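Researcher: Batch entry, complex prediction.
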Amino acid sequence: MSFEYEGSNIETDENGYLVSLEDWSEGVAGKLAEDEEINMNDQHWEIINFLRDYYQEFQIAPAVKVLTKAIAKKNDIHKKEASVFLYDLFPNGPGLQACKIAGLPKPTGCV
Amino acid sequence: MEDIKGAGSSGDDKENLDNEGKFLNHTPILDELEGGKWPSFISGFKELAERTEKPMIRGVMDQLEYSYKTKMGYWKGGLVTVKGYGAGIITRFSMIKDKFPEATEFHTFRVQPAPGLHYNTKMLREVCDIWEKHGSGFINMHGQSGNLQLIGIEQDKTQECFDELNQAGWDLGGAGATVRTAASCVGPARCEQACFDNLKVHEKVLKNYAGMTHRPEFNYKLKFKFSACPNDCANAIMRADVALIGTWRDSIQIEQEYVKEWIDEYGEDALFDQVVNMCPTKAISHKIGTSTIEIDNKNCVRCMHCINVIPKALSPGKERGASLLIGGKNTLKVGVNLGSMMIPFLKLDTDEEVEEFIEMMDEIIDWWDETGLDHERVGETIERVGMKQFLEAVGIEANIDMIVRPRDNPYYKKEYESAT
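Model: Structure tokens for the complex:
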């Protein structure tokens, strides 16, 4: 599968995740978010940037547990609240949706 | 994929399976499963398929027939969720959807039953109707996980189906690294041996951990089970990380007139064979020629055998509560574990006492979440870092009654006292 963005052809896997991390740009992320019916705001971008930084450092997407704790720490809230916060931003699960918008591969296994 | 192509002999797939105008294709290997003495799931599949004519069921049967022929399984996982939920749907995608397009998707909904599996017929009818409308119609009651398992739905239909189920009062169960769907025995609702209201505790725990059930964020799964007496009908000691098992701390209640009645009916030999000699700690005595029994309650290990044999004469003591055991699980990083005794006696009668229990669980879950490794159950974490560290961290005082198994191996070590 693939889609057009600003004249270039961007390849995705069968579930709509980018095949190549290099194809990602903020514009592409916006297009991906549109497909997921998400209106991106600053809070969304914060998560997306966190995921991309993490991926660049460790070559793997963070476990949801790690993401939740990081968000809790960053915003100075309890883990339970952080979890609700994440699911409010990405209703189908931060694992599935945020990774897709961040251009990371689809998380595998039971998340 | 080469294996799959090579496995079926050439050209036999579609033509020979065609079944003269009938809805289902020929499945000779599956048909063999209907031949035995017992009810067969294949008969159920066929009945439902012929009645509903859902292509999905036909596809799954064709793929299963092919699986039996090639001795390979062709389902793979993935991620399917509904809005706001990270868990609750178990995915099943076909690896050979080109061969069996009708079997492309066959996901499972895990739906939480009420504590003690108490339903009313209205709710059951509703869940059946909703499921047959959106899914395959198959319902598994109940899977090992304790859930009502609704088997067979396509990804596109999950949200709509969930919304309808939710409107009818149902909620999804746990899957993955969450607090899983809890299980209870029938409890005080239908059993006179119940030592605490496990159904009430179950309901409160379920409500308190609803968020942690739907959004996976732990190291691994965490299971609660509640058995209202030491018979442990919910299998809590084996299958739950957190097991509450009813118990009592005074003496077994004896009504000697019913002991006499029992002896008159079955004889003294039977009393020795079935009760006195079966007591694992030899705590029951009976003098020949009399019609009473005595129980040395200090040595009773709450095995429930005597109470089960003479339920009319014997019943659990009057001061009832529950024991908390932690760490039961099947083979994982280390072998099978039974739950370990953590709190020998907990009162769980009032709402405050149940709240206190939940607060203690929050404490334990928090500790495990911080300390545990990926894919490590709470019992394994305790085994790895040590009981002492665990108890100190969660603020439970060490007690001589905390044991691995009855009459054996206390964790507690008494301070050395010099002889002088």
